[in-house]
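Pasting two entries for a bug report.
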Amino acid sequence: MDFVLFAGTAVLGRYFVTPRKTSTTTTTTMSVAAISLETLQQQNAVTSNTLLEEYKDSRRFAKLAAYEGDLTIQRDQEDASKLIKGIEFAQQKGVIDPHFVPEPYIPMDVLGKTPDQVAELILQHVEEHQTTEQNGLVLVLVGLSGTGKGTTVAKLNEKLQRQGLSVTTWSNGNVFRSVTLLATTWCEQHQNDDLEAALTKDNLASWMSMLSFGKNPEGVYDIRIQGLGLDCYVSKIQNTLLKSPTVSKYIPTVAQYTQGEVIVFAAQAVEILQRAGICVLLEGRELTVNYVRTPHRFVLHLSDESLIGKRRAAQRLMAAALHDAEQRADTTSVKEILEAALDRLVEDITQN
């Protein structure tokens, strides 16, 4: 299942990005022996890069990194395979155009760059290619897992806020959950125990027509569900009805059949936001975000793909070490805790 992240920035009038100079900040590292508990608790790029530097010659860490890298690539390939099937199914139904060609992507090698630097480069490109008068702005980020899409979006979000802009996020996962809620509600009303059989083209079209995107009574952009006895805004039920056991159980099945419908809904929502003068940050997989029109498209990649596994290994190590550190009341050093955590992680993958 593909979950797409939107971050909208409310802007009055036209949209302009404040001129800036490209950051020359370098990655901060320190010796593991000197890492404090406070640094470990940050669980951020500084912590991760410090561990990468410290364990660059460690065979144990290399083993963990290779395992995590292979696992990440395998998971990406499996997700892509499922997504392709969903896209092809949508094309066969005529929901999306099989001949659609998106604007070209701008490759960005993030090797040796911090998320802050990547965000600066993206905004610099936007400044160079924006028109003098422009309603809203849409930025699309794609890339393999581990290339830093999520952290880059967070940095872009942060930098836009510093310009005095109001920022909001919206997960496309709620669209899948909304359709699933309608599907399960329909099955209950029709006493149908075979939900997958109910996912016909006509039913899906009917349920999607019950979803709309616009401002709720509070003046905030929101998804409205209106049909089958339901009339509610997603913001009001996203932590209740949309996360009920029944909805959660059937999301994978519904998502397999609704990739096209959700892609179309998302593209229309982005267009509404852009026309309203809102900046939209869109992060996801190419096959889904391709259908959103924008010249600002970036594909993040690592010229050294082994770093994908190394980053993931560092993330697992610092998370495990922090958990262990918080459980201990003695004076064991962070270095000793990290070493013990690494031993345990390597032992776990060896046994598997």
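Entry 2 (this is the one that rendered wrong in the viewer):
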Amino acid sequence: MSRRLFTSESVTEGHPDKIADQISDTILDALLEQDPASRVAVETLITTGLVHVAGEVTTAAYADIPTLVRNKILAIGYDSSKKGFDGASCGVSVSIGAQSPDIAQGVDTAYETRVEGGAPEGQGDELDRQGAGDQGLMFGYACDETPELMPLPIHLAHRLSRRLSEVRKNGTIPYLRPDGKTQVTVEYDGDKAVRLDTVVVSSQHASDIDLDSLLAPDIREFVVEPVLAALVGGGVKLDTGGYRLLVNPTGRFEIGGPMGDAGLTGRKIIIDTYGGMARHGGGAFSGKDPSKVDRSAAYAMRWVAKNVVAAGLAARCEVQVAYAIGKAEPVGLFVETFGTA
């Protein structure tokens, strides 16, 4: 069978784009907690010393957005100007309006009810009377490479990113800072993952940290090796001997987070899904309530794909669904099992 390399990446909670995602979702969660019927579409821009929140919200709830923003940034770990960003003192601006009434009328009363004479209010399933908040196509995917039914490269990259945050917060590697990225390259023999080829770990760190004598050995000992041991110990069959490890390949990563790069909600859509192993419809998740099918339909299709694989019906499954704005029912549904059924 043909051999190939496949690569996926992940980021830590302190990556500027992921900070933006978390801020958008924190605001969403606060509104949904008070009013589950909230319509929310919140976008966040974060840059040096400033967070700007914009979007459309229709809700009966109240949220102190600046406080939510600051608390989230502090919880991530940006709590000092020495780290390049301080959630306690940064500027927060808010520009939020109401959802467009043109969109709202299609979500409130679906096309099937308005035009096709579907079940009136009080009859049938209430969700059948709610239209999709936008048009679009969404994918769900699952495979049997890991116990979580996720592709191995993105699964491993996520574990490394979570471990980076863990050793920073518990003091194992106290000089790390919140921003970081991981990347994993796995060799496949046909459709089977057989060997770990390359691991890249880039982590923001304090000043005066030597890469070769301190950072690289610590990353190998306290981040990469424990994650690989847990992976193999969890039943994943993969040759992890002789992999190449690259730590901070530029040589230094002191300036990070929003000071190093501006962050935006929705720029890590491949990381948020399957690491490139499956197709993507283009819509982001964060800051969107369930009426936005970019999020809810992608979650639902992941559930479908997982159940197909978990039931042993296929080793790999990808499901596409498509919606028209204002319609309750999908306009398209497609299931692909890649010859593994």
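Dev reply: Rendering is fixed now. As a check, the viewer should reflect this: The mean pLDDT is 94.
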